[in-house]
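Memo to structure team: turn this sequence into C-alpha cells by end of day. - J.P.
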Amino acid sequence: MKRIIAAAVVAAMVPLLFCGPVRSTVQHWLDSKRTTPGFDITGRWDSGSAFSGGWGGVTILQTGDRLVGTMGAYNIEGVVSGTDVYMMMASGGRVYYTAKLSRRPDGTVAGIAVERAIVDTPGASGAAKYPVILKMEQEQ
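Reply from structure team:
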C-alpha cells in the first residue's frame, strides 16, 4: 500500500518538475522591476539563427516601460527599467524562459535567459542558462 501511495505522489509531482514558473508569478516579478525606462527597445532585432544557437528574429514594441513582441517561436512580455530589460518568453500560455538583458555602449542588448525559473532569484541558481545578444537590424 505504501508503494502505491508513493508512486501516486511521484506521478502527481512529475508534471510539476517539467513546468516553468507560473505566469502570474512571473508577471509579479516583472511588475517589481518597473522603473523609468532609459531607452526605447522598439524595433526589429537579430538574435542569431535558431539553427546555430540563437533565438531567431526578434520584434519588440515598447509602450512606456512595458514591452511586447516575439523572439523566434516565443511571445515575449517585459519591462525596460533604466538600461535593463526584464522579460518572459512564453508559448501556448506557458512560460519557458525569463531573461535579464542590459543595453551595452555599442547599442546591443545582451544578457542571460534562464529556463524554467526566474532569472535573478535563488531558484535560478541550478537552472539552465543561455546567452541572449540582440543586435538592431539595419533598415533597408
